[in-house]
Amino acid sequence: MGYRIGFDVGGTFTDFTIINDESGVVDYFKVSSTPDDPSAAIESGLASLIENLEISPDQVSHLGHGTTVATNMAIERKGARTGLMTTRGFRDVLEIGRQTRPHLYNYRVRRPEPLIPRHLRLEIDERILADGSVHRPLDENAVRAAARRLVESDIEAVVICFLHSYRNPSHERRAREILAEELPGVYVSLSSEVLPEFREFERLSTTVLNAYMGPRMQRYLEKLLTRVKGLGISANLDTVHSNGGLMSVATVREMPVRTCVSGPAAGVIGAAEVGRTAGFRNLVTFDVGGTSTDVSIIVDGQPLFASDRTVAGFPVRTPMVDIHVIGAGGGSIAAVDDAGSLKVGPKSAGAVPGPVAYDRGGTAPTITDANIVLGRLDQHSLLDGRLLINAAGARAVIQDKVAGPLGIDLEDAAYGILRIAAANMNRAIHAVSTEKGHDIREFALIAYGGAGPLHAADLAREAGINTIIVPREPGTLCARGILLSDITMDFVRSELMLATPDIWREVIAVLRGMHDKAEAWLTRELVPDSERRIETMIDARYDGQNYELAVVVRDLAKLSVDGFVAEFKDRHKREYGYDIEGRAVEIVNCRVRAVGRIEKAHSRLEGVGGEDPKTGERNAFFGREIGWRQTPVLRRERLPAGMEIQGPAIVEEMSSTTVIHPSQQVIVDEFGNLIITRSAPHEEALENA
Amino acid sequence: MPEGTPSGFDPIAMEVFSNRLLTITEEMGITLIRGSFSPNIKERQDCSVALFDRRGRLISQASHIPMHLGALEGGVETILAKYSLDDIRDGDVFMCNDAYLAGGTHSPDITIVTPIFCGGRLRFFATNLGHHSDVGGSTPGSVSPTAQTIFDEGLRIPLVRVMRAGTLDEDVLSFVTSNSREPEDRAFDLKVQIAANDRGRRLVQDLVSAHSIEEVERSVDDLLAYTERRLRARIAALDDGSSTFATWLDDDGFGGDPVRIQATVTVSGSDLTVDFEGTGPQARGAYNMPKAALNATVYYCVKTMLDPELLPNDGMAAAVTIKAPDGSLAKPEFPGAVGMRSCTAQPFSGAIIGAFNELLPSDRQMASGNDAMPALVVSGQSRRRPGTYVYVETIGGGSGSMCDLDGADGTHVHITNSSNLPAEALENEYPLLVEEYCLIPDSCGAGRQRGGLGIAREIRVLDEGTFFYANSEKTVIHPTGLMGGKDGSNARIIVNPGTAEEEILKANQPGKVVQKGTSIRLETPGGAGYGPCEDRRDEAIRDDILEEKTTLEFAREHYGRDKADATWSSP
């Protein structure tokens, strides 16, 4: 009998999910994070799990982990002291970026300072042209001199990025050899290995982050492995990376930049899997935390991917689950401005000082305080009694700072804060879905994170969404998602050429070479043949365009140039509504994804019932027309499959609270998900008023 | 409630509806950008969308570059002046571009206006404009500094219906697209523009039917009144008074003396007036500012200097009066050419911000930035396909410093914010080689806070018979320092730098054909400094030298030899 454990290290909590492979029974667990040494919380959490469930360490068959170590390094600028060698004339590419300013009207908002200062960005005489030919040979003495200069500057990591190295990496490789002689043991990242893709700023930025994160990530992994071994666990440790797949410690060492949105990506993978099992294939994911909300779109059971995202303001071009961060969460502050309008966010009280109701020194009214005032959150304690609530403080601050200045009643002010928050979130979600060409009114909302289920009903109403899914223990879905992830790795290579019969053989050869690389990687990751899959895509565009569309290649052996062009045109038509007769098609990038399938367990909800789910009732406010309602409070773990509840109701569990409006009903499905739908249009009109 | 708030004002409904209206304009904008074909709209996002009410008041705008702030009202104003509401049918769609006949910004910007009917009555207008890369005329791109009249700048489209009662008028469409060098691209983009408005129409109708027209209109009134109240509060917080600032356009497109640009900003209670009296005469070339461009530039400066988060709607316009003398650069007379108005808008922004500075508290002041639109155009025989290629790029420079902040290095300022083209993309597409792309050390104005550094971009042509045109403002005029800060550097256009054939070109020279191997270097202006040099912190002086952003010689010259040497040699 084996157990698989997924854990996600967040800023406040480290969440665990454990699955019994045989019975499919799932358990959830949470400990406080230890930001100075994240592996300490992991160790104590794992130790408690083993003890509480009475399992022996050798029964643990697999560990999967989501981490914010890499991202935090970039945000806090606490990575390695890094140097750069680049083509003469181009050291400022890292600093100029795309020459745009981040805010059109506010000149105090700046691009982030580059992670490598100007004097540690060294230029080397060498030049490769767009066709890969050598225009000026590598000046090896200059490389040697640069290496010595970097030694003197106490460099821990070096980036080598030359122009057009995606097409000809020989100069970068030779420079690494010389560097190894001069600076043995230093962490080196080559742009042609981290991201062999054209467009120098984005390739450079991605490679710089990788090197900047490399040395500290290595130290973190060593420590974590030692702690895990110390517990007697010998299972492999995998890490979720930004595309929602798993990779080994060895790969993370080389490519730490790929772990940037590790935890949130696992959440989306988990949401997609939960949704698919529950029969919903088109989803909006809605993960509300203390300071921000992550949203993404799942279409036909598949998360969407993007490779144009930023981390701490720096472009990262590795494929990531397409998650958008909205600056609104439980800690978002409500404020009345000098012209009499009520704004919610983007300022946040964060975890510290936090909402007034948490009594940690917060003095500004927040969304959480509004939820306390309206009776949506328990007015005495949260987190199963671990967090005491100062409801009087929440009421006083909303009265003094919102209701008073606006000349309205306390509950109208608190309700207004939630309505405005929902309108803000809806606007952000619309921008995401419209950009992808989808109408979210046809989607279901899957709500998780500590506060997702609390705000889902308000958001769904504002967005015109009819169905809400709340998975079990929504506060730990990211940890659960880790156990639903496959082992994956993305490979890319820029190959700019017009799609003509002459070059087709070359394209196929490149893709075959990439397939070989993908197979080799799967072998290294110990994936058995039967569980392997290789996906192929080609990014292409009409000649003269500057943006690409990904065309999925189903069968490489049967792919002809005509078939590819037809496929591209079809894709263009579906995406933008038209295609163009007679215009040449240009291939831009070849992409391959290696997938090692992992068995996924879905536990049905069994053995629940008997105990009365109702633990009490409390007064909750649902807008001026409906007013206060005596609302039953139900315990999530006691809700049996098939149970139907008419709103209003409040469902509580350890990590989250779900609010069901008077206009809604909920049914518990066979997997224990809450499926919330609209049932009373009349009530809904009143809630809206 | 603050003073001046009307009774019955519902701040929560207003904020909720404000988000709903912004959601609609943002969806329209995304539809437009996503669907369009040409890089100008799709990638440079040189386009804007807006909603107006039936009285022609701007309700909400999604503007991707400041040059379009409030610039869409021309089309709606023209409709309201020309027709009574009864003459307009559901399903009609209007099109225009002309600066003199339809309030246009310059000919390549084609505006589409779609009336929105709710319950059988015209209630709103959805509008958008996109920069089309060519609308005919004597020069590819339809914009040339030496265009002398609007007739040189391509097709003039007065207000015409491109759809009637829901049916596309293919004749009108083909008439317009046939006047472009790229008829196919024009047709795609115009259809996408029509579709983007149609999306806005449906979303507005959904919003009205989910609530009621009264509720929506009530919130619109509240929103416009709120914006006006908010801006007036910012203005009223300043002392009454008047301040004038002048800068210059290097020349008017035909050489000659610099042309004066003068702005006077006056605060009186909660009213703001921006007057361009004293500005030089209308340019002989295409540097004139049509009304839409002048208004956009003023609104940009008002937002930047007073309230960066102020929503662009009619309330923004209500507190601001704009005046300009007839026949001046700021208010040209027909048929003056206007194609280069973005280049003019940069020093205009500099003049307005300069005038604002004296009226503002120090934490809102800003020294002059590069205040230019340096541009490079290279054209020749394509190696990739039959015909010619045209490479066009605008290049950023240094931004101005503030009382507690150095200027930003290498960035676009003011009314534009377009991306560069990566060297690797450029070299794959064109027979050109990028020799250098870097910040220019010592190009900043010194001061307590230094200006941002300018950018140098040097490109070598690889084929014979290549045409190039390079231009920038601020080749003679310097970005102006503030409160004792020093001026920023000039722009320079250099052919074959560092060789025996090196040649420095003046601004506004006609383009020329050069030999294979010629290199062209454009150096853009650095931003100006703020505050006296002696107040600069030692650490900042040292960091700049360490980072090789300024040289030791620069530090010695501006901060004093002894101080510079002591700072640099200290551990």
Give the secondary structure arrangement, pairings included:
The complex is a heterodimer of chains A (about 700) and B (about 575).
Chain A: E1 3-9, E2 13-20, E3 26-32, H1 38-52, E4 60-66, H2 69-76, E5 82-87, H3 93-96, E6 121-124, E7 127-128, E8 134-136, H4 140-152, E9 157-161, H5 170-182, E10 187-190, H6 191-194, H7 200-230, E11 237-240, E12 246-248, H8 249-254, H9 262-278, E13 283-288, E14 293-299, E15 302-303, E16 305-306, E17 309-311, E18 314-316, E19 320-321, E20 324-326, E21 332-336, E22 342-348, H10 367-373, E23 381-382, E24 387-388, H11 391-406, H12 410-435, E25 444-448, H13 452-463, E26 467-470, H14 477-482, E27 487-498, H15 501-524, E28 532-542, E29 549-553, H16 561-576, E30 585-596, E31 614-621, E32 628-635, E33 644-646, E34 649-653, E35 656-660, E36 664-668, E37 674-678, H17 681-688
Helix pairs in contact in A: 1-7, 2-7, 4-5, 10-11, 10-12, 11-12, 12-13
Chain B: H1 11-35, H2 39-42, E1 47-53, E2 58-63, H3 73-82, E3 93-96, E4 109-118, E5 121-131, E6 160-164, E7 167-168, H4 170-177, H5 183-210, H6 213-236, E8 241-249, E9 259-268, E10 271-275, H7 291-306, H8 314-318, E11 320-323, H9 341-357, E12 375-381, E13 388-394, H10 423-429, E14 432-439, E15 455-461, E16 466-471, E17 492-495, E18 503-505, E19 512-514, E20 519-523, H11 538-546, H12 552-559, H13 561-569
Parallel strand pairs in B: 10-11
Antiparallel strand pairs in B: 1-2, 1-5, 3-4, 3-6, 4-5, 6-7, 8-9, 9-10, 12-13, 12-16, 14-15, 15-20, 16-19, 17-18, 17-20
Q: Can you offer a commentary on this structure?
A:
- The complex is a heterodimer of chains A (689) and B (571).
- Chain A is of the alpha+beta class.
- Among the domains of chain A are: 145 residues, Rossmann fold; 110 residues, Dna Ligase, domain 1, CATH 3.30.1490; 75 residues, no CATH class.
- In chain A, strands 13, 14, 15, 20, 25, 26, 33, 36 and 37 form a nine-stranded mixed β-sheet that branches. In chain A, strands 3-2-1-4-11-12 form a six-stranded mixed β-sheet.
- Chain A starts with a strand and ends with a helix.
- The mean pLDDT of chain A is 92.
- The mean pLDDT of chain B is 93.
- The chains are: A alpha+beta (689), B alpha+beta (571).
- The interface between A and B is large, with 70 and 77 residues.
